[in-house]
Amino acid sequence: MKPTTSSAETHDRVAALIAEHRGQKGALLPLLHAVQDALGHVPDDVVPAMASALNLSRAEVHGVLTYYHFFRREPAGRTVVQVCRAEACQACGAEDLLKRAEQVLGCARHDTRADGAVTLEPVYCLGLCASSPAIQIGDRLHARVTPERLDSLLAGVKEVA
Questions:
Q1: Which UniProt keywords apply (predicted)?
Q2: CB-based burial of residue 111 (10 Å sphere; 0-12 exposed, 13-18 middle, 19+ buried)?
Q3: Which one, of 75, 95, 70, 72, lies nearest residue 85 by Cα?
Q4: For 84-123, how does the pLDDT look when each residue is reduced to its tens digit (9 = 90+)?
Q5: 117/68 Cα distance (integer angstroms)
Q6: Which of 5, 86, 112, 153 lies 20 to 30 Å from 122, alpha-carbon distance?
């Protein structure tokens, strides 16, 4: 991922969020969520301030930030397509769906298309294990996705994006 350089305004917003969460027990996850809600992502260059304020190492903050698939270190595309890669989905064809999504969207996994229209993310567990394979487009979950259904769903994404 390319480094993100944040503006003074961004740092001020993050400082206000840090002040709001600093005294909270177990503040790191709520703070990361708040920063992402405010900015759309958690820029790498705000990690040191969060770590210092919460008396954590930068490595601890970075570890949490990169462990959870829902945190972004860069802005996402206008539409986010997530393909579940957990075991149940993998057993039911998720890898083929992910490859197909890359072809249809013209976007590599873990990447945002150059026009900023779509981000394609492999994720680990969308919580629909009994209805595998699963994908999520924006905030909408889709279960038992076949290659044909994927094409239909992604056609809608290409039209909107």
A1: 2Fe-2S, Iron, Iron-sulfur, Metal-binding
A2: middle
A3: 95
A4: 999 999 999 999 999 999 999 999 999 999 999 999 999 9
A5: 23
A6: 5
